[in-house]
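Inputs:
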Amino acid sequence: MNVLGLSASCRQWGNTDILVHTALRGADEEGAETRFLRIPDLGLGPCVGCMACVFKDRDCVQKDRLPEFLEAMRWADAVVLGSPCYVLGATAQVKNLHDRMIRFGIRREFVGKPGLALVAAGVPGWEPLALSQVSLFFLFLGMPVVDQFIGHAQGPGEIFDDPVACDRALEAGRALGRGETAYRGDPGACPVCHMDLVTTRPDGAAHCLLCDLPGTWEDRDGGRRFVPAPGAEPRWSPGSMRHHFEERILPSGPRFKARIREIRERIGQFRAGGQPWKSV
Ligand SMILES: Cc1cc2nc3c(=O)[nH]c(=O)nc-3n(C[C@H](O)[C@H](O)[C@H](O)COP(=O)(O)O)c2cc1C
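Outputs:
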């Protein structure tokens, strides 16, 4: 097994680096080869929205170190991605990585490689979005999440005061090293993403925001469980992903091209102070 560790923290040897390295040590104990990459060190620029990678299946137009990252992803049989929590969510490094990887949601090149998602956060309860943003990296790419958790620490290195998180990183890393793909984490509200992002909509319907999965709340075993609607597929299922890209995204390119003259004229009208969305 080749296990790749990715840290999305700018603090070298901070808490995220330590948790990711701990997972790699676990994998190493099981005989895996390991590699560690710090995402900020790659200096990846933002997605510029040209859509060439999606519509033309071309390599990214940005001339930076994304190929190095992709080479590491191809080398890996399993991946650990860690992020600090910044302002309730993952770092901008994680979001940037999602955007730069959009082509691979279509290409399905990394499907099936197991992933471990982890977060280092300073204050319990001040990290409601962070873990789902890290796990999203795996869900979007069709990679099964083996575990996902948050460790708590403020100063770089204080994560050693959270032995539960360190032990969990070690154990999850061992599982990756053994080639395990089954989910071993906390159940969570949603049976697909195992996150607690199920909302109750104004009409009373329950919906997992991350998975775009409708369902109902059912009283069971003295508590409430989210039960997905029969036949409903999460947005990550191969069928839903194919439909999204083939029916929604890919046709938008030729449709736009066919209207480009008209749209440019309307932008011109708008720039001149007009309201080209109103019919005359
Ligand atoms: C800009 C910034 C924003 C932060 N926002 C949060 C936050 O919203 N919730 C939280 O729990 N911790 C927050 N923290 C604390 C970090 O998550 C915490 O220090 C973490 O251990 C950093 O991981 P690192 O050592 O790998 O960089 C923030 C830290 C910074 C620098």
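Remarks. Residues 9, 11, 14-16, 84-88, 120-123, 126-127, 153-154, 156 surround flavin mononucleotide (CB under 6 Å). The longest helix spans residues 15-29.
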